[in-house]
Amino acid sequence: MTLRRVGITNLLIVLALAALAPLVVDLVPRITIPVAVVEVLLGLFLGPQLLGVLHVDRVVNAFSDFGLAMLFFLAGVDVDVRRIRGTPLVTATLGWVLGLGAAMAVATGLYAGGLAATPQYLALALATTALGTLLPALADAGQLDTGLGRSIMACGTVGEFLPIVCIALILDPVHTHLAAVALLNLFVLVVLAAVLVARRWRPHRLVRVVRQTMHSSAQLAVRLSVLLLLALIGLAQVFGLDVLLGAFAAGMIVAQVLGTADPAFLESLQEKYQGIGFGITIPVFFVATGARFDLAALLGSPLTLVLMVGFVALLMALRGLPSALLARRAGLVDRPVPLLLLTATSLPLVVTITNLGVQDGRMSSPVASALVGAAMLSVLVFPATALVALRRHNEPDAAERSRLPAGLPGRRRGL
After folding, report:
1. What mean pLDDT value characterizes the chain?
2. Dihedral sign, CA of 234, 237, 242, 246?
3. Residue 56, φ and ψ in degrees, nearest 5
């Protein structure tokens, strides 16, 4: 069996780029560049638009789809309802609703002005947050257990889950809205039933084998998790819903069942998930996204570039600003700018929504390219800027301390 027959050449290039990306990030130590951005840029550079070395064939596309599913599965696993429930979740939901309403108004105005994009697609693309992309950066910066971490987890959960629900209810070209609501409710009931069964039904032998194989070649816990992921993706397809809803729900089931019963075991299992996801499949999705990116459509008109810059501003104004101001008013964060930037960071769902829009003829390729370009810029610029601002805020003011007499404590910031 040759490489040509199994079509592994492009996958080999993609995995080589995935291995190269962390090394490229390490070359710029003073700037926090998300590795996902480098993966997208490498895919764009070697893809059909520039060098033409990399092409997204069926094998790469299959790995890319599974990588996207793993990204949302991990986002579901990382959702800690106990940590975000109450004020953070209510505030995040209200901020998302206000932002979506404003985005619909702006998108309707742009559509009336001749922009080739149906308002629902454009508004939803501007109302997403890349939770799965942000959590590793927040964890590396030690911010997950802070007020900012809880707020961004709430905003990210809402900014990923609710747009997926809206995709199923609003953007579904097959079902009527009433049928979509019925199918979504049925899917939710199935998921809730699965959670209840998993919490109550714990066969002693199954639990024992799961624990015994945690560090062996059997890895039953990982195998069951992947089985659950694919089962819920298949169930979502049967119901005619977006498969990302199934992936996200699978992650939440794992988190709710194991997080309640044994948080330490879930933490160990998460490391294995991250090894599969961020080590293998998720980088394929980001590299393939870069290879698919329509650079010619983006650069074909100055208006498209202006749109891209405008979409970056709209992400901040419509997605980030309402959530940040409400969180500040609720006392969840003391500085709204980092939360604004992190909440406005988007990419995976923007790619999904624009692909749907182009396929359905509801969005032109230049507008889709401008949206994806804006999302790529948000991932490149927003998290790095937010983390730099946090570090500067948390660092002690050395110049101020040097002016104090020896033995006197420094003044607290902001007092």
Report:
1. 84
2. negative
3. -85, 95
